[in-house]
Amino acid sequence: MPTSTRSAGTLIFTVANYCFLGIAAALCLFPVLHIVAVSLSSAGPAAANEVVLWPIEFTMSSYSVLVSKASFLTSFGISVERTVLGVALNTTLTLLMGYPLSKTSKELPGRNVYMWMLVFVMLFNAGLVPNYLLIKTLGLIDSIWALVLPSAVPIFNIILVMNFMKMLPREIEEAAYVDGASYWVSWWKLILPLSKPVIATIVLFSFVMHWNSWYDGLIYMNDNKNYPLQTFLYTVIQEQDITSIEQANEATSVNGVTLKAAQIFIAMVPILFLYPFLQKYFTKGIVIGAVKG
Amino acid sequence: MKKWLAMAMSVNLLAVVISGCSDPTATPSEDNEKQEQAATTAPAPETSEEANPFKKFNPPIEMSTLYAIDEANTFPAGDNAENNPMHQLFLDEMGIDVKAKIVTTPSSKEDKLQLAITSHDIPDFAIVNQSKLNQLIRGDMVEDLTEVYEKYASDNLREVLEQNDKKLFAPAMRDGKIYALPAPTTIYDYMPVLYIRKDWREKLGLPEPTTMDQVLDMAEKFTTGDPDGNGAQDTLGLYMNKDLNSLNYIFNAYGVYPDTSISLSNMWLKDQDGNYYNGSTDPKAKPILERLNRLYDMGAIDKEFAIKDAGKANEFIASNKIGIYFGLFFSPLSPLVDSVKNNPNAEWEALSVPAAEGQGSFIPGAPYNAYGWVYVKKGFEHPEALVTMMNYISDGYGAPWLVKDGPTSFQQGYEKVASDPKYANKGLNNWMPLQIAGNINWGPIFKEAYEKGDKEGPAAKRADYKRMFQEGIDGWGWKKTYLEAYLKTEYESVRYPDYSGPPTETLSKTESILNKEKTEAYIAFIMGARPLEEFGDFVETFNKLGGSKIASEMIAFEQE
Amino acid sequence: MRGAKLGRSWQLHVMMMPGILLVLVFMYGPMPGIVLAFKDFIPTKGIFGSDWVGLETFAYMMDLPDSMQVFWNTLKIAFLKIVFNFPIPIIVAILINEVRKAVFKRTVQTMIYLPHFLSWVILSGIFIDLFSQTGIVNKALGLFGISPIFFMGEPGHFIKLLIATDVWKNFGYSTIIYLAAITGIDDSLYESARIDGANRFKQIWHITLPGLSPIILLVLTLSLGGILDAGFDQVFNMYNPLVWSSSDIIDTYVYRLAIVEANYSLGTAIGLLKSVVGFVLIVTSYLIAKKYSDYTIF
Predict the structure, then answer these.
(1) Residue A230 with chain B: CB contacts under 8 Å
(2) What pLDDT sits at residue B130?
(3) C50, C36 contact by CB (below 8 A)
């Protein structure tokens, strides 16, 4: 191995690289640490914005309030439900559609029609009212399916999967076809096992999409008991002019700065754990040569 | 919202706020007499039976609405919007089964309503703001309530709704017809209160201010005099944020009504010649802006106020850097309470806002003192049910002082629920589909009860009253609010906009653009980024962007 | 052979069907509602019963004062965002890929992706502190003798701040897609390059970048579709009266119009305009790529 002869240039690059990435990461971590620090501080110093990265007058009270806060817990549960359902549906449909689209028009007549049909709706949307009316007509208002079905086909993810599968060498499948395997078998036995990095990516993307969506919850749910977490958070965090005594009471005691911070942080926790969990699929490069052999 | 919990109290109702020259009591009582006469002289048996203001629907009717329930008043386990004692009370008393078409929080109420309107899927009735009301009327989505109101409204309801010469009806009227009923609330909720750091004032040996000029001078001294005694010049005399909300009251003290508060509608006023102008283009604003610019320059106003919304600017209050704050009666609960959390010695005093020297009395610019306007969906079978509900609510509940024969059964039912320990800390009125209240000043009522140590009486049944007895800092906010600040909300009169018709075509189109122009200019003048000599240019631009056209459209509307 | 393949293509169509059905129902189903852009929408009359007004809504929009200014602001901010948001994640992905210590690599990856999940409501408050005239950034600049800069209040600086904070918020998340693509590159290519004595830079240049080029082209093309999307949430939460004229974008402008009186047709018309412009750009770049490099993006 020629490693020993690596120049000083490489060393400098490596050190600079580590420093650069380290600083970038620290800058990104700052606001999260700030939020955690605020959530663990007393209300007074937090309201005065004295907390930076370390709690002032440490207290866990925000979290103990949160644990007993029914509205928060309910909406957390709804978010979990929609995310599980949504990710399962998204992933299945994405893999089902990405594969045929990765074929040429010769193999899949009408491929380009399908493709442009999808690209078109990526950009054009009928808008709020027609969408709402559809959901209402289908009787899905206040139903979890209103949060899952309209976004069941994540087009960007399909294009990603399609691109990835396109890049796989054609020879992989050729042999199987000769042996009389159907597309189904080839998809299931050959293509999907090789697609782990892109599957990890689309699972992550659709998890994030479902976990973070708030607007659909707001419009399709007429009872706020059915709000998913981010919709609930939106109603809590959104700054509003205080024009009544209820709002004044809510602004400082019911939903003060520290409790808001705690809710924001807890809502981030699933996201925090998801990525490291999926990362092993991002670091293992595939070795196509082995397949070819 | 919960300032009008049910109680049978011998109310010493304070002066009804009078606007301009009108006599608020004249019109309604005349109407009532006429109606009584009509009823006695022409006793058509069928109509008089039908026209019972307190009729009970049998079998009960269903009527859907929108509930906006805040965090503090969420239903206890097992209850929900369609299953709680307040819902039951409406069903038992009126035979109205109120359905919850939409349940949301106050913060997303407007979003949900807008969606309901644009998708033509509105609840049978709901309280809406002016902008939504305009859409509903224009879209022909609501019932004409003129007849049912005339026929079914009780005397007490009229008394409450028709205050100030029926001023509150104006936004809901088109061609003399009533398309929605105002849902009034006590006007004292909207009256400004001046909060001053009393400990700072006393430390610097300053007297309680009696004019706005003294208040602004005090802001300077709070800045230079090191009132917090930390040896550094780090205090700000006057609170200010980018929405300029509190600025309004300073201008009002000088008889100028620029209406810089975003939550209010624009102030269109009439000059001596009968022409309309926008309050912000009044040349009398110039010297006040100049005074504020001096305050800004010398550091009495945050140098960066123009980039901070209320939430951000409030941090100065929490960190005890602010000496003077213009707010409403509930400001002790937010944001002042944060000041005391950080410094238990911080002493805030609540004062009525004083007028400027030589201005006589302080006349605040007033928004409509209403939660909004209640419509009934077009085609709903029993539009009179809305009036029925309002009759029940106003009778001894929204306007207790009008009750002569002791508490009504609706009121008794309400009090029974309020005494249930399960609902002790809930603002039950928020669970009602609809609220209205007359002009009650709760300050003196609460104070009297509190000083007597009342724990059982009607006042003591209110959730807010109980909240005053909370321990420590929480109790501080509620006590300050009701025992001090609310007492300072009395003013001799208020200034309504002179124009009260529907928004004109140009106004709908350009209002947001004009607001932007106004806010930009006022901020630039205060910060000195624009010399005051250019005030005339601002007025010219404002009028050119739509101001003049709006003014002439308003005249045209009135002459129609 | 050929005949056999065609005979089997029904399998591929079957795979497409569930998704296509959902797309037809949930995305194309409401699509006729887009005609609202050409109608004077009155809810009682419904979408199809409302009167046609042709292009009047667009004329109304152009007639509003400031509309040109707002249009240019949008274009400028969105364009700058694409210019910076596009290359940075690629560079970072490549840099991360060069890291050999797995723990460091994973930690960095996770940390840089976090800002994506904080809403602008929260972040704007934090940025106001950081970039205040007495804030940490100006204090740091002060060490170099630079007098305090009013980042939030001066239009020129504010635009830079918008771009920088947007890049900061999203670069980590955008990196994921490139990291995944890098793992898709055949390892044996690096193997043989190393045997040929290519150093890291050469490997990046000759293997990593070409390997990423399809995804790079895809992301760039799609981001062109958002050329009139300057980021409502960010601008709305961060702007203030001092920078209104230079940072007011189409979406914030329409939002403020709607507060006074919701004009649903206007909202639809604006949305349609944005979609058409975006779609034209996407199709154009698709055709260019196809013509000059014989590469199909989709």
Answers:
(1) none
(2) 87
(3) yes
What is d(CA A67, CA B535) in angstroms, rounded to the nearest whole number?
A: 55
Residue A173 predicted with pLDDT over 90: no
pLDDT tier at B46, thresholds 50, 70, 90: very low
Q: What is the pTM of this model?
A: 0.89
Other beta carbons within 10 Å of B15: 11
Residue C21: inside a domain, yes or no? no
Residue C60 vs residues B379, C57, C273: alpha-carbon distances, Å: 33, 5, 14
How far apart are the C-alpha atoms of A228 and A213, rounded to whole Å? 8
Mean pLDDT across B409-416? 86
* DSSP letter for each residue of B491-548: -SEEB--S--SPPPHHHHHHHHHHHHHHHHHHHHHHHTSS-GGGHHHHHHHHIIIIIH
Which 70-109 residues of chain A touch chain B by CB within 8 A? 70-71
State residue B428's pLDDT score.
84
List the CATH number of the domain containing C159: 1.10.3720.10
Please check the confidence at residue B486 and state whether its pLDDT lies above 70.
yes
Q: Which chain C residues are Cβ-neighbours of B543 within 8 angstroms? A: none
Contact C261 B516 (CB under 8 A): no
The mean pLDDT of B321-340, rounded to a whole number, is 94
**Superfamily, domain B18-188+368-467:** Periplasmic binding protein-like II (3.40.190.10)
What are the structural domain ranges in chain A? 2-59, 67-292
Tokens of B96: 């109205």
Both tokens assigned to A293? 């052999």
Q: Is B60 helix (H, G, I), strand (E, B) or coil?
A: coil
With contact defined as beta carbons under 8 Å apart, do B84 and B121 qualify? no
CA B523 to CA B260: how far, in whole Å?
11
Peptide bond just before B332 cis, omega within 30 deg: no
Which tokens sit at A200? 């990890």
Which is higher by pLDDT, A175 or C132? C132
Residue C22 lies in a domain: no
Would you say residue A288 has pLDDT above 60?
Answer: no
Amino acid at B46: E
C194 pLDDT above the threshold of 90: no
Alpha carbon distance B119, C43 (integer Å): 6
- Report whether pLDDT(A290) > 50: no
The mean pLDDT of chain B is: 86
pLDDT band at A194 (very low <50, low <70, confident <90, very high): confident
Say if CB B442 and CB B490 are below 8 A apart.
no
Q: What is the largest CA-CA distance in chain A?
A: 76
What CATH fold (topology level) applies to the domain A67-292?
MetI-like fold (1.10.3720)
Fold of B192-365+493-499: D-Maltodextrin-Binding Protein; domain 2 (3.40.190)
Classify residue C43: in a domain, yes or no.
no
Compute the distance between CA of residue B288 and CA of residue B293 in angstroms, rounded to an integer.
8
**Residue C158 corresponds to which tokens in the numbers above?**
């504010």
- A 10 A CB-CB count for C271 gives 22
Report how far Cα B462 is from the mean position of its chain's Cα atoms.
Answer: 20
pLDDT tens-digit map of A217-236: 999 999 999 999 999 999 88
Specify the amino acid at residue A210.
H
Q: Do B341 and A43 touch (CB under 8 A)?
A: yes
Q: Which two tokens stand for residue C296?
A: 């199909």
What does the radius of gyration of chain C's CA atoms come to, in whole angstroms? 24
Question: Taking residues C277-295, what's their average pLDDT?
Answer: 91
Q: Give how far B25 is from chain C: nearest CA, Å.
A: 33
Closest CB to C36: pick one of A127, A279, A281.
Answer: A127
Cα separation of B495 and B360, whole Å?
A: 14
Quote the tokens at residue A129. Answer: 């009212």
- Residue B51 has a CB neighbour count (10 Å cut-off) of 17
B331 with B325: CB under 8 angstroms? yes
C15 vs C134, higher pLDDT: C15
